[in-house]
Design a protein that fits this description.
This protein is of the alpha+beta class. The protein is 48% helix and 17% strand.
């Protein structure tokens, strides 16, 4: 599926929901949130969808990220 359709798919959202709750739990416990991992050519999230959606839900607009670069 194209990226946007996959993000909106029911199965993706069902899989993501418990991981978002886990991020919320870790945040409440004071555990640092690791950076996202992005593909530099198009900013695709390689790792960190649950972190991204959780942080977005609490109003965070800037996060740390590792950005890959292809040569």
């Amino acid at each position: 599926l194209p990226q946007q359709k996959r993000l909106e798919s029911r199965s993706f959202q069902e899989d993501l929901a418990p991981r978002i709750r886990k991020q919320e739990e870790l945040y409440r416990d004071g555990v640092p949130i690791p950076p996202l991992v992005l593909r530099g050519s198009d900013w695709l999230i390689f790792d960190g969808y649950a972190r991204y959606f959780f942080l977005k839900s609490i109003g965070v607009t800037k996060v740390l990220a590792y950005v890959g670069v292809s040569e």
